[in-house]
Amino acid sequence: MLTPMTTTYRCPADGARAPVDAAPWCCPRCGGPWDLDFDAGSVQLAALPHRVDSLWRYAEALPLGPPSAGLGEGRTPLVALTPSVSAKLDFLMPTLSFKDRGAVMLVELARRLGPERVRRVIADSSGNAGTAVAAYCARAGLPCVVYVPEATSPKKTEQIRAHGARLERVAGDREATALAARAAADEPGTFYASHVHNPYFLHGTKTYVYELWEEYGGRLPETLALPVGNGTLLLGAALAVAELYGNGLIGERPALVAVQAEAVSPLATAFHAGADDLPPRRETATATAPTLAEGIAIPRPPRARQILRAVRDSGGTFLTVTENQLRAAQRDLAARGLFVEPTGVACWAAMSGWTDGPAVVPLCGAGAKTGLSA
Ligand SMILES: [Zn+2]
């Protein structure tokens, strides 16, 4: 091990704990995802202009120091689309999606755990998280295997292969892919870079909100719209809001508006039914249909309970968008000069008519990853 890990994993469901350097990839008691026991320090706005021009400038708030194998991630631009809605261009990240924010954390963690503990990194993904993990593994010199559903966009699988990762295509849906990765995750020497189960990923995605806080001069817009499949950007955002508020760095907390594709919207359904979790699996009658928004087509997100609570506690809500709205939003953004993949336009599709106070939507994956949807 190269650097001692001073934090531990903690299960949000039952309080089980495990040291970061010797933990299984999920809670051994309930099989659920981990949280990280980590108290973010206070980031001072005045100190920032002199710092590195990447997400690593928020050093006090991050559980790892700067990576030896970074790619200049973070600090994406904010552009106004209407008087009320601005877009943060997270498709301008090194691998063209916001997942780089979390992937750099996971791969840096794997590197620090050392070659005796980590001989290979595996990830499962609908495409973009796997691409991001593959790229950072390439940068760090770590062997990588990425599991994807067989229907994943060819441009995404090409990007994964180009970074030297081994690609495993799995028959069936996104959940079948996750199960295949989990079966491999327990093999000795394997680090499972799960963007869903490993909380370091959320401590990376939270920098999305730290950047907004800096951009807005030490406050946040009234509303943050966030796409939700597994909820990794939304939960990262909620974490950042809690840290900034807890450290007295913001006086008002934004409402979190979660956006799902109507075709696969288990959380929106649960939220509007007043539920605090998804129904038990055997009762799940939630119909899912094919959707252009492949990156958020998650029928049973493991962090469902946390996502529902984060949105409810913020005073926000869930919105859903149809396939026609996704198509129209992609064309509308392209006509404004921004070419974004269908998953990445979901928040704009939901918020383009928004006229209440200031809101920010992420445009989180590049159009070049999928092409224009018919
Ligand atoms: Zn547990």
UniProtKB/TrEMBL annotation:
- Report keywords, A-Z: Lyase, Pyridoxal phosphate
- Essential cofactor(s): pyridoxal 5'-phosphate
GO molecular function ontology, one term from the record: pyridoxal phosphate binding
Q: Say if the entry is tagged with keyword RNA-binding.
A: no
Domain of life, source organism = Bacteria
InterPro entries assigned: Ser/Thr_Dehydratase, Ser/Thr_deHydtase_PyrdxlP-BS, TrpB-like_PALP, TrpB-like_PALP_sf
A Pfam family that the UniProt record links to this protein = PALP
Which Gene Ontology BP annotations are present?
isoleucine biosynthetic process; L-serine catabolic process; L-threonine catabolic process
Where does the Tryptophan synthase beta chain-like PALP domain start and stop, copy by copy? Answer: 71-364
UniProt xrefs under PANTHER family:
L-THREONINE DEHYDRATASE CATABOLIC TDCB, THREONINE DEHYDRATASE, MITOCHONDRIAL-RELATED
Protein's name in the database: Pyridoxal-phosphate dependent enzyme
